[in-house]
Amino acid sequence: xxxxxxxxxxxxxxxxxxxxxFLKESTITSIYMAREAFHGEVIEEPYMMALYFRSxxxxxxxxxxxxxxxxxxxxxxxxxxxRTVQLERLLPRLRYTLTQRNIFQHPDFNERxxxxxxxxxxxxxxxxxxxxxxxxxxxxxxxxxxxxxxxWGFEWPRGKGTKATERVVMKNEDCIAAGYxxxxxxxxxxxxxxPAGESVCIVxxxxxxxxxxxxxxxxxxxxxxxxxxxxxxxxGFSRITSYMTWIIQVTGxxxx
Length: 256
Fold this sequence. Notes:
By secondary structure, the protein is mainly beta. The chain folds into 2 domains: 26-121, Trypsin-like serine proteases (Thrombin, subunit H); 139-242, Trypsin-like serine proteases (Thrombin, subunit H, Beta Barrel). The chain is 11% helix and 33% strand. It has helices at residues 25-33, 76-79, 172-177, 244-251, and strands at 5-6, 8-10, 15-17, 48-54, 59-68, 71-74, 84-89, 94-99, 103-105, 118-121, 146-151, 163-169, 189-193, 208-211, 217-225, 235-239. The longest helix is centred in the first third of the chain and has 9 residues, at 25-33.
């Protein structure tokens, strides 16, 4: 049986929203601005950026990662149908609103969430210890290593903030055996094994998967099953090493 995909979901009930589900800006703001995080700790990594997308009629929330003073990477499905994107951080406090012409989806992105990666061009950021880029990978980085995920999520309905969890990269064949379609899990997909209760959650979409302990960006949150945060089903990420040529071509930045 194939697992149904979920782009955004409510952790308590495993309810899966369709792409572009309307979320009130006040709700998003209350999530993002909350000072209570998992285990009572507020985590806002220097590379993380809150992204609030809007179409003509609705809005939705995702996460991005700073890869350069002028560029942010996120999931392509986050950018679909958007007209504007508002970027926001708590520390340092900043907010920008950008138009669609600053958003670059991967040209091969499709409804099966293949090649689910996008770039956002931003005004020059003043990088500092509080606002900094995440390192990009070398093509030789192996995928069967223990990794740490940094995702912008919250525990529904009590905790709010960010959660850092650790997981192990799976072979794609094992991910398919767990129930995902071969049309979804392709060579540029990176799947990770997830302990029950530690899946990515609503507003995690587009967030970063980091190699541990180097803290190099190796994946962008793409999909999970509709079982919700407690399901313990494998998660799918866009494998950054598969897109380095495209990233360099679009941005002009060099690999670390």
